[in-house]
Structure formats: structure tokens, C-alpha cells
Design goal:
Blueprint: H1 2-11, H2 14-28, H3 32-40, E1 45-50, E2 53-58, H4 75-88
Antiparallel strand pairs: 1-2
Helix pairs in contact: 1-2, 2-3
């Protein structure tokens, strides 16, 4: 729902943005300020910081990180390695 409304919100005029924002607030119950921030930042990487440091958040969808290299060891090697780990604790 967020992705579809965000597309309309980001491409619309000021008047259309107000209508989409009102629709989104009505469906979710969010505050208008927070709802407009979500619609504006949908499908973008946002860096949030607090006292503990920085945190990267993807708004709207989870992106899967692709492996860049092939696996070096096969499943048989992995099973033997796990057996050795369990044997040696």
C-alpha cells in the first residue's frame, strides 16, 4: 500500500499530494507529518542517528543483498566442518 501511494504522492502536484496524504492518514492513522515523511522517503535509504550511533533503514521494501562470489566449499565439506565443531565444542 505504501509503495503504490508513494508513487502517486511523489509524482503528483501539491493538490494531489494533499489528497494522497489524507487518504494515507485515513487508512493508517499516522500523524500527517510522519505520513508525509514516509511517502516522501519510500524506497530510499535513510540514515538515522541517535546517541548509540547511526542506523541505516530502507523505507518501503526490504532489499536482498546479492552474493558477489560463488561458494568455495560444497555442502559435504560444510557438514564435516560442523561435525568437527560439535566434536571439539
Amino acid at each position: 500500500m505504501l509503495k503504490e501511494l508513494a508513487k502517486r504522492y511523489q509524482r503528483g502536484s501539491k493538490r494531489k499530494k494533499g489528497l494522497v496524504l489524507g487518504e494515507f492518514v485515513g487508512l493508517t492513522g499516522y500523524n500527517r507529518c510522519y505520513a508525509s515523511w514516509l511517502l516522501h522517503n519510500c524506497s530510499r535509504k535513510v540514515i538515522l542517528s541517535d546517541k548509540g550511533g547511526q542506523q541505516v533503514v530502507f523505507i518501503g521494501e526490504v532489499r536482498k543483498i546479492k552474493r558477489r562470489r560463488d561458494r568455495v566449499y560444497d555442502e559435504e565439506f560444510r557438514r564435516v566442518l560442523v561435525w568437527i565443531w560439535e566434536l571439539l565444542d
